[in-house]
Amino acid sequence: MNALVLLSELRSRDIYVWEESGRLKCDAPAGALTPELVETLRERSDELIGFMRSTRSAANRLTAMVPLQPRGSAPPIFGVPGHNGDVFCFISLARHLGEDQPFYGLQPPGVDGRERPFECIEDLAAHFEEQIRAFNPNGPFVVVGQCAGCVTAFELGRRLHESGAAVESVALFGAPFAARFGRLPRLLDDAEAWTKEQIRRTAAHASALRSRKPAQWREYFAEKLGLVRSQRAGGDAAKPDAVLTLRAAVERATLEAARRYRPRRFGGRLRLFLPSHAAPRTRDQPLRWRAFAAESEVWYGPTGCRADTMLREPYAKKVAEAFRVTPEPPPPRARRSRSHSTHSRT
What domain count does the chain have? Predict the structure, then answer.
């Protein structure tokens, strides 16, 4: 397993690794780091640090571009990551697309702490356009976006196309429409997440109490209360992690920029990759993008796929297979009018 594949595996488990003062640092959800993974990270820390340094070195001149897969003769793909700026969300997709398909992640300013995050989608798209033009002046270009990055990817593709560049397509994974990032949908998300968490906790406590005698309940509650107090005390004393702080700043700036964005017409080909047939009925409203594109097509993911997992294993391979499919171009008359098509993969 090479470094790229290992990083992809870690990313699929929401495990983030980075270098700090010559050491490999890690942030992972509770229980995600198995003893086997811990040992693997310990044994291969130098290899991973070397890989991450090489990607930073290659992107030193073009600060936004992280080469996830730089080899190949196909038109390069430029990927805009989600709200936290993590370009490694595309690792599995880049791997499954093959060694002849160059793939570059577009890292937004602010992730490395050297610049302030952009708070305007148009400014961020212009920044990415400048970087892409410097790297590949003549095109053709393929632009993709994931989660909140779909908004920036759409604007980036629109700008490139409007300037006369050859834009093969713009692909949006999950494809939440810009209005998805308004204050009301996000408040509803927060309320829904809070409610689900309270239900989960209540169910867990009820299960624990059922396994105990009533005389033991007081001891159980005292134990849980002591655990909460110690966690709060530890959280207050802990020094905020610099990487996580930077990532949170990028998240806030990106979501605020997406909230203010108003899409304009894109004259090229738009590809929407949705996790399921239920996606159009969610607050994401992904099919609204079609009203702003001259040509569009839709792909629906397999059973069990979600917007937050569609670029991870085991779904990334299916998405890559669908991405490689090139539908027949519409006839000349259809090119002058709006053309839409739907492709379903289950």
Answer: 2
Please, are residues 176 and 154 in contact by the beta-carbon 8 Å criterion?
Answer: no
Considering the chain, what is the average pLDDT of its residues?
83
| 185 band by pLDDT with thresholds 50, 70 and 90 | low
Residues 17 and 7: beta-carbon distance below 8 Å: yes
How far is Cα 181 from Cα 6, in angstroms, rounded to an integer? 32
Q: What is the b/e burial string over 155-173, where b = at least 16 CB atoms within 10 angstroms of the residue's CB?
A: bbbbbbbeeebebbbbbbb
Q: Which domain CATH number covers 280? A: 3.40.50.1820
Q: Per residue in 49-88, pLDDT tens? A: 887 776 655 544 456 788 999 899 899 999 999 988 889 9
Q: How far is CA 213 from the centre of its chain?
A: 47
- Give the residue numbers spanning the domain of 38: 3-180+254-344
- Please give the structure tokens belonging to residue 74: 């196909």
Q: What is the DSSP string of 193-239?
A: HHHHHHHHHHHHHHHHHHTS-GGGHHHHHHHHHHHHHHHHHHHHHSP
CA pair distance 150, 146, nearest whole angstrom: 5
pTM of the complete model beyond 0.90: no
Please state the separation of Cα 207 from the chain's center in Å: 35
Spatial CB neighbours of 53, under 8 Å, sequence gap ≥ 6:
19
In a domain, 79, yes or no: yes
Chain position carrying tokens 């289950």: 346
Does 106 share its domain with 157? yes
Residue 247 lies in a domain: no
Give the pLDDT band (50/70/90) at residue 128. Answer: very high
Give the list of residues 6+ apart from residue 97 with CB closer than 8 angstroms, or none. Answer: 69, 77, 103, 320, 323, 324
Per-residue pLDDT tens for 237-279?
555 566 677 778 888 888 999 999 999 999 999 999 999 999 9
